[in-house]
Known about the structure:
This protein is mainly alpha-helical.
Amino acid sequence: MFFDPMYLLFALPGLLFALYASFMTKTTFAKYSKITSSTGVSGAEAAKRLLDDAGIHDVGIEMANGFLSDHYDPSAKMLRLSSDVYHGRSLSSIGVACHEAGHAIQHAKNYAPLGLRSAMVPLTSISSPLSYVFILIGFLFSAPNLILLGALIFSVAVLFSLVTLPVEYNASARAKKLMVSAGIVSPKEAADAGAVLNAAFMTYVAAAVSAILTLLYYLWRAGLFGGSRRN
């Protein structure tokens, strides 16, 4: 086995960006988790009110394990909120809960990027590990064509990360607007809760950047862009 210094050249910017985004998400969430909303509603109550205000009454809300493990499951029509968000009455909890409710609204309104992302999940779960198999074999046997094949398969994961961006951005935009119109928070509080969502969105941008840079590295190692085809 070996370590290719060129990998750092491609991957390091994405890694640093990801670390920064993760740090900002945790610190921003912690900052606004200390500020309780003027309405005093919990994250679960905020999500329910947002969904009711949007005319959506067939989506359940339940607790999930883990810190910031919050997500919307379109197949089960279920919002799963971490304990801190479910019970929390802070602007952070409300912001995250309303963001996930935003995904449920996307689903109800047949928001195309969400449908595309959901359809890509099975393919992405298969293509990602499979791509590494071809890439590893290509490196071990100095076979650039196998590296290229693995890179092309890996591009599915890259596309998934890019499709995720408008889905997450739109969910946050809906949350920021609707949490005010539904009377969950004041406009000033919505801006503060939105800061949490903005920080969280950076993690998706960082993931997309990292995926793109990794793909470029594999393509370079396969001989494209004037890269070396030797290991």
